[in-house]
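Same chain as my last thread, 123 residues:
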Amino acid sequence: MDITRNVSVLLDAGNFTPKTETPDPVCLESIVRYRSSVAIEMIREDILRGVHSPDVSAFSELHEAVDANMYLIDEQHPDPLAGSFSDWPDLTVNNQCVLLNRIIEAAEDWLKTRALVRHREEY
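reply #2:
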């Protein structure tokens, strides 16, 4: 796999596959956990690639290099319900925003707490 340094996984999807498996069964709670895990994997990879500073500690800081909101969704996911909340027919826009904010909060928590384990390679 040829990974271009400083190129975000958001632009280099062919060279990045999340390790997190799509949940089965698919329900809103499992998708929030799944999308949170995938978002963290993608952010972590972009830190390793040099897209973001190793010291980044807030989700809002990610916007300096990329449209960080794109870490939250995957419009190309083979299961549309696992890729985006907009494909759930009964969700209002407000409810979609609530769920997306939960993913942002999970990523934010990871960014803030990873400094506690920064000495470990797998952080």
